[in-house]
Design brief:
The longest helix is centred in the N-terminal third of the chain and has 12 residues. The chain is elongated, with a radius of gyration of 25 Å. With 126 residues, the protein is of the alpha+beta class.
Amino acid sequence: MQNNFTAKEFSESYEAREQGLPLPHRAAGSITVRDDRDNGVVDSWTVSLTGCPLQPHESRGSVWVQVPHHITEGAGLRSLEYELLPTRRRAYWVSRQDQVQLPNPAFAQRTGWWGACWAGSRPSCL
């Protein structure tokens, strides 16, 4: 992923981080994986990369400097933010060619004898 940001946008992201708000400027994209069968599965993830690679200089007022490297220099500030395991969306297809998607499963609560057997911490019907 790649995007261009101005120093002003990086400073706005830094200010948002200081206030505990989500960072406003980000590079976004998506990853889609599909098999080659007509009735296959499609997995997709929306990914987002943001951060604050600039920070105010400690003693020079309105001067902004690059954040030091994480491990080897400075206070160890991380300049990037990302979600390590973004949520996967999965779609099952009856036919991709005909645009017929398998509906999402609908889960219902069991009300018959089986649900009553498992009502406690251990099965009472066995």
